[in-house]
Amino acid sequence: MSEPAPGIFTFEIFQPHFCELLLSEVENFEKWVNTTKFQVIRPSILNKFGVVLDDFGLQTMLDKLMKGFICPLSKALFAEIGGSTLDFHHGFVVEYGTDKDTDLGFHVDDSEVTLNVCLGKQFSGGELYFRGMRCDKHINTKSHPKESFDYFHTPGRAVLHHGRHRHGARATTSGHRVNLILWCRREMVKFKKDCSSWCAECFEEKRKKLLPLDWDETEEVPSRKEKEPAAPPTTGDKWKWGVRK
Ligand SMILES: [Zn+2]
């Protein structure tokens, strides 16, 4: 496993034969949908192509994948959002190509943790671009240069990321790309809602709150112990420690 950018983990997950079997299962389902004119629910409002894998018998397999594989990983990699307590999944495939959806706009997922696996086939383009994790309040804030990361898909290889890691997919410029997406959620267990361990803006807000009042950030930071007054501060003291209102 590697972490090419903070909070983005990539690793080999499926053998080529398994990818082929899964792709043929999806193709069979789509043929049946076309023949019967059955109205299927597409995976998300952003995708006109692709199918929900839970809808045609793969729910148990995907649940085992989440509980047996993603949960132990998330416990270690995403402990701050309760990675070991994931208890619900939404599993689907998305399809991109010149006769399908080509790209996917900038968004966050409706998940705690997302597994994204390229199943094939032959394609060019379609890379994922990431722009940092944000909570709802800060979702539209600027990204910092160090938060910019582009990931190029390889069949059989997975990307695991925080659901609030803002991302999008660039255009698949030729061929046909199919990816399996598993949104893993925690529905039953409530978890503390302190976003500062992963949202860069909440982190910055919290950091600033913990700075002394009248703090000039260009000055060297003194240790809290050195400057903390022994007696309650009197009016006019420069250093008043505490939470900035
Ligand atoms: Zn935030």
Automatic annotation (TrEMBL):
Annotated Fe2OG dioxygenase domain residues: 87-186
Keywords, sorted A to Z: Dioxygenase, Iron, Metal-binding, Oxidoreductase, Signal, Vitamin C
Cofactors named for this entry: L-ascorbate
Pfam families with a match to the protein in the record: 2OG-FeII_Oxy, OGFOD2-like
Spans traversing the lipid bilayer: none
Disordered as annotated region, ranges: 217-245
GO MF entries: dioxygenase activity; iron ion binding; L-ascorbic acid binding; oxidoreductase activity, acting on paired donors, with incorporation or reduction of molecular oxygen
Name of the molecule in the record: Fe2OG dioxygenase domain-containing protein
Organism: Sphenostylis stenocarpa
